[in-house]
Each structure stands twice: as C-alpha cells, then as structure tokens.
Specification:
This protein has 242 residues and is an all-beta fold. It is 0% helix and 52% strand. Strands 17, 18, 19, 20, 21, 22 and 23 form a seven-stranded antiparallel β-sheet that branches. A five-stranded mixed β-sheet has the order 3-5-8-11-16, with no helix packed on it.
Length: 242
Amino acid sequence: MKNVIWILILTGLSIFSTQALTCTAIASGTWQSASTWSCGSAPPCGATIVIPSGFTVTVNNVQNYTGCGSPLLIQVSGELVFNGGKLRMTSGSEIYVYSGATVRETGPGNGNSSTIEIGGTTLWNADSPPVTGPASIPTGLNLPIQLVYFTAEGLKNHTVQLKWQTASETNNNYFELQRSTDDLNFTDIARIDGAGNSNTLINYKYIDENPIQGNNYYRLKQVDFDGNFHYSPIELAYFEKP
C-alpha cells in the first residue's frame, strides 16, 4: 500500500508518510525560510512535508525539485498558498489536501505566474480555483485507511488513556504509539497489532502508566505489512505528578 489517509471528524483529514525525513511547518512563513520548518531548512529531496492546521506556508519563488531522485509527499492540513511562486517536483510526487485545508493563489498573478508541476506537467496554476480538501494533486489518489479519531486523556489515577478508532484498514500490520516532551523528538512506548484489512469500525485503547511530568505529546506510527509507515496527528496530555 503506497498511501494512507486518516479521517478526523473534528479536525480534518491527515495523511502520514513513508519517507525517511519529515519536515513539519512549525510556523507560518515562506517555503524557503528555515524558521518555517522543523527540519531547519527548506525541505530537501524525498522529504515528507507536513503543513498542520493553523499554519500557512507561502511559495513566492521557484522551488525546483525536478532533479531529485526521490519524490515529495506533501500533506496539507493548513494552507499552502502561492504568490508568484512555482513548485516543480519530480514524477511520483503527491499532494494531499485534507478537510478544512486549502491550496490557493494569494497574489495578483494569473496564468502560469504560479504553478504546481509534477513530472513536467502543470497540474494547477494561478487561474485554477482553490483546491479545498479533501482532495489530492494529482487527483484521484487512493486513500484507503481512515482514522476516525485519536485522543489522549489524563486520568485521575495519574495515567494517560490513548484511544483511537479506524473506519477502514488496508494492509495494516501494527501501530507504534510514540511519546514526546517537545513535540519534535518521539520515542516508542508501545506496539499494538492492527487488523490487517477491515471495512468496519475498530476501537483501540492503550494506557500510558508512566507519563512524563508536564506536557506529553502522543502520535501513532502506523506500519504496513510491506514496511511503509505513516504518522497520525499529534495529541497533547498534561501530566502533573501528585
């Protein structure tokens, strides 16, 4: 399975990557600005690029990835906007636009003043209407796995309860539950078997009996039988020791 999508009822869709490097927007800013990204630079070749809800990344010059040996995977839960910019990517690159997210032109440009190009083909330009999620570029990409929700809740017995529900699963081997104190560096705390293939609602639950003092950030790493893996949105639980 190449691509996976998780559907969040309240916060929109999010897709998670199989690439070695993930660059997540940590501030609204321009594509080329190092301060925009968790990876500390403009996203390199082969990266998975995540624009969370609440953040806007602006392409205002030419970003040329056509010489890359590996494609880009762009996951937009916020906004990807163009202001006289061009995003040129190698064949096989994909953009997923989730519910509540947008790809649009913000400047006075028209025609090919702003473009999204994959493999030398222009798939969107300044004259195109905004792309609102759920959608993909190219259109029609398969999105087989759906996550209905993922929550983290502190309990009175000084533990944190993690719950999630899937609406469908395809080729899902297992989940790794990961925790972080800084929202950037995650470690595995548990492994939970997946259902493989399913078209019915499945509920999962795990109790973290040893949360860290202060902020605990949690995410799921979903791993396919073929070894590809995909990340969920991040949930926060605050824990204060008695």
